[in-house]
Amino acid sequence: MASQATLLLQKQLKDLCKNPVDGFSAGLVDENNVFEWNVTIMGPPDTLYEGGCFNAIMKFPEDYPVNPPTVRFISEMWHPNVFRSGNVCISILHPPGDDPDGYELASERWNPLHTVQSIVLSIISMLSSPNDESPANVDAAIDWRENMEEFKQKVKRCVKKSQDLL
């Protein structure tokens, strides 16, 4: 018998296939594993990432939607809220409840009402408006704050690499 997580993920994938959302596409890495998705995010218009086509892997826990998935860019990404490993660091991907470090309100963190669509739209928003207050990539945050030309050049290189892979 399929778990609640399996049924929910199958439904969300079916919904995305029937009603695609501008700015991204999603599908399974392996048709036999609904817990691991390929996600392609198009660089948002009027941002430094415009024209890029960035690939990421979204992995869901067995207890989804109680706990959030992880998202890791496999395309090169230079951004204050993306670790050098490619892991995305945004509030809605943090476990539910109070933040032990006190940086985030519980209402900003994961809740089971989020969907794949709301997660990816949050990532697209992150590309448009980096949060350099609590960066995952300190060097990118420093470039963002203090050396915008260097930041732009590094992002431009990432966009070009993502286009070369098409």
From TrEMBL:
UniProt keywords, alphabetically: ATP-binding, Nucleotide-binding, Transferase, Ubl conjugation pathway
SMART domains (alphabetical): UBCc (SM00212)
Gene Ontology MF terms in the entry: ATP binding; ubiquitin conjugating enzyme activity
Residues annotated as catalytic: C89 (glycyl thioester intermediate)
Family matches, as CDD domains: UBCc_UBE2G1
Domain UBC core: 4-164
EC number(s) given by UniProt: 2.3.2.23
InterPro entries named among the record's database cross-references: Ub_conjugating_enzyme (IPR050113), UBC (IPR000608), UBQ-conjugating_AS (IPR023313), UBQ-conjugating_enzyme/RWD (IPR016135)
Enzyme class label: transferase
Keyword Nucleotide-binding in annotation: yes
Superkingdom classification of source: Eukaryota
Gene3D superfamilies: Ubiquitin Conjugating Enzyme
Transferase found in the keyword field: yes
Record's function text: Accepts the ubiquitin from the E1 complex and catalyzes its covalent attachment to other proteins. Involved in the formation of multiubiquitin chains. Signal the protein for selective degradation.
Family statement drawn from the similarity comment of this UniProt entry: Belongs to the ubiquitin-conjugating enzyme family.
Official protein name in the record: E2 ubiquitin-conjugating enzyme
Biological source species: Theobroma cacao
Species lineage: Eukaryota, Viridiplantae, Streptophyta, Embryophyta, Tracheophyta
Gene designation per UniProt: LOC18586119
